[in-house]
Every structure is written in structure tokens, then in C-alpha cells.
Design goal:
- The protein is an alpha+beta fold and 263 residues long.
- It has 2 domains: 210 residues, 2-Layer Sandwich (BirA Bifunctional Protein, domain 2); 45 residues, SH3 type barrels (Roll), CATH 2.30.30.100.
- Helix content is 29%, strand content 29%.
- The strands form 2 sheets. It has a 7-stranded mixed β-sheet with strand order 1-2-3-7-6-5-4, sandwiched between helices. Strands 11-10-9-8-12 form a 5-stranded antiparallel β-sheet, with no helix packed on it.
- A hairpin with a 2-residue loop joins β6 and β7.
- The longest helix is centred in the last third of the chain and has 20 residues.
- The N and C termini lie far apart (45 Å).
Length: 263
């Protein structure tokens, strides 16, 4: 199935210098764009392949959670990367920066990043989640691949009513339409630029951009589980490899995975 007009024109412009999107696979409906992209990776697809869906029936978030993905309401996309290990571990951080930059460029709203992969609308806005990122890795034919998926709530119907206290959409916040095609194309352009930063050794630029957008979360208390025991402390920063630095009663702790509960 060909790309709908809403996406075809802005994505068509990606051929001018953007390495992502040389191959774009569109689904009116699919289970999960991340699962589709992972299958393509296993089949030997080239880096930069993008899977986009108008609707997901089994959209995924972190830690096995589902991601609401009703038709024609959001952006649901996954990009295939074949990075070296030093780049792979930073892709989630880079993707968060890229999605936030794209939202700001297209919608005129400056999002807040919350570790490890959530995009919120901060000062002057609702403070609710508007986008999320899920990176999944695997090995096929001796080569590591990483699929970076992102979901952005564009229309009010992009999340169920029971999430209304925690989620929002761009159009709900703005009170006007947002061009989904333009937003997706800009996400891919910014993601390509931040990926290029990582490959070019400019990781500090990416981390600093992330810190600037996450600064309002520094100083907040969090809880998490480590080795079966609850831990808590105050968020201080992220380190140069994207780990969350938390000040606890026992000293500085570094959180790199798992569920974080913001207090």
C-alpha cells in the first residue's frame, strides 16, 4: 500500500540528504511497528529502513506495557539502525532529544524529557506525557541491530480516557491541527542528525541537549527496585553515558534500567 498524501509529500523530501527513510514501509494497520522492523532486521534489511503505521493493534511500551495506537490519531514509527556498541547504548537518549526537537520545530511547544524515554509538555502546559520511545536490540547473521520506535499523541483520540490524567496530545494542547506528515519527516531528520552526532564522537552534545530538556526533573525524588530491594533518592543528573545519577542516603547511585517511580 502506498503512502497516504498526508505523509507522501513531506517524506518524499527526505531523499534530499536524509539517510533515514530511503525505504519506508507503510501499514494502514499492523500489530507493532517495532516488531515489523525487528523482523526486517532479521531478514537483512538495510540501516535506515522505516516502518510507519496509521494504527497499531499491539503497540508496545517499556517493560511490556501497551501503547494505545488508534487509527489516524498519532505517529507510530520504528527505525532500523545497525550501530556499533558505543553508539547503540546511547540511541534511546538521542531519540528522545530528536523527538523533542521535532515537536518543538513543528508544533512550537518545547517538550520536557523524563528519564529514560518519556516526552512531556512542561512549563505553561499540562505537564502530561505526549510521546514515548522504545529501543529494542537483537543480533542477526552476526550483526547487532537496534530498532528505535516512537509514538507521538497528535490528536485527542490517540490515548484512552482512562489515561487523561497522565497523557495529552499536541492538538489538545495547541487547539489547532498538527501536520502528522511534517512531524514524522522532521522526527526522521532530527534523528538522523543526532545519530550522526553519536557516530561522529559528539556524544557530549547529545547528552547536553538531553540534560537541558530534562533539567526540571533534576531535584525530584524517585524510587526503584534493585536486587529485589526498594531504593529511593533525589535525581541529580544523567552521566555521559545516559545513566541516571541519584543521590541516596547511602551515597550516589547510578540507574541504567528498570522501572522508575517519580514521587
Amino acid at each position: 500500500m502506498g503512502l497516504p498524501h498526508e505523509f507522501a509529500e513531506p517524506l518524499g523530501r527526505l531523499a534530499d540528504g536524509c539517510p533515514l527513510g530511503a525505504r519506508i514501509i507503510w501499514h494502514a494497520q499492523t500489530g507493532s511497528t517495532n516488531a515489523d522492523a525487528a523482523a526486517l532486521a532479521d531478514a537483512g534489511a538495510a540501516e535506515g529502513c522505516v516502518v510507519v503505521a496509521d494504527q497499531q493493534t499491539a503497540g508496545r511500551g517499556r517493560l511490556g506495557r501497551s501503547w494505545s495506537s488508534p487509527a489516524s490519531s498519532g505517529i507510530y514509527a520504528s527505525v532500523l539502525f545497525r550501530p556499533d556498541p558505543r553508539v547503540a547504548r546511547m540511541l534511546t537518549i538521542a531519540a528522545g532529544v530528536a523527538v523533542a526537537e521535532a515537536i518543538e520545530t513543528v508544533a512550537g511547544i518545547a517538550p520536557v524529557l523524563k528519564w529514560p524515554n518519556d516526552v512531556y509538555l512542561g512549563e505553561g502546559r499540562s505537564g502530561r506525557k505526549v510521546a514515548g520511545i522504545l529501543a529494542e536490540a537483537g543480533v542477526s547473521r552476526g550483526q547487532t541491530w537496534v530498532v528505535v520506535g516512537f509514538g507521538i499523541n497528535v490528536l485527542p483520540g490517540s490515548f484512552p480516557p482512562e489515561l487523561a490524567s497522565r497523557a495529552t496530545s499536541l492538538e489538545s494542547e495547541l487547539g489547532r491541527p498538527v501536520d502528522r506528515g511534517e512531524l514524522l519527516a522532521t522526527c526522521l531528520v532530527r534523528l538522523a542528525a543526532r545519530y550522526d552526532d553519536l557516530r561522529g564522537g559528539r556524544t557530549s552534545d547529545v547528552v547536553q541537549a538531553w540534560r537541558q530538556r530534562a533539567s526540571s526533573t533534576f531535584g525530584r525524588r524517585v524510587e526503584w527496585d534493585e536486587d529485589g530491594a526498594p531504593k529511593s533518592g533525589v535525581v541529580r543528573n544523567v552521566d555521559d553515558e545516559g545513566g541516571l545519577m541519584v543521590e541516596t542516603d547511602a551515597g550516589r547511585a547510578r540507574v541504567v534500567s528498570g522501572e522508575l517511580r517519580w514521587l
